[in-house]
Amino acid sequence: MSFEIRSTMPGRIVQLSKKAGDKVLEGEEVLVMEAMKMEMPIFAPADGVIAAIKVGEGQAVAKDEILVIVE
To answer: Among 10, 25, 32, 51, who pairs with 15 as Cys (CB 3.0-4.6 Å)?
Structure first.
């Protein structure tokens, strides 16, 4: 089963903590996003493997944009 990690608000990607192919555990940091002048870590909601990262560092993202796909 795969799931998408989406942006909860508009912002900018500050750091990618994982890359495609990496295993992640529930609650593990996947990336860091900046919104409203605050850095917010984005965590994996379940265990899995990063199938695709749809954003890059420095990229602006819109609300509800797909950031990462985990399988």
So the answer is: 32
Strand partners for 31: 16, 42
Tens-of-pLDDT digits for all 71 residues of the chain? 789 999 999 999 999 999 999 999 999 999 999 998 999 999 999 999 999 999 999 999 999 999 999 99
Q: What is the 3-state secondary structure (H, E, C) of 1-35?
A: CCEEEECCCCEEEEEECCCCCCEECCCCEEEEEEE
Domain count across the chain: 1
Six-digit token pair at 65?
């944009």
CATH number at 27 reads 2.40.50.100
- Parent domain of 64: 3-70
Beta carbons of 42 and 66 less than 8 angstroms apart: no
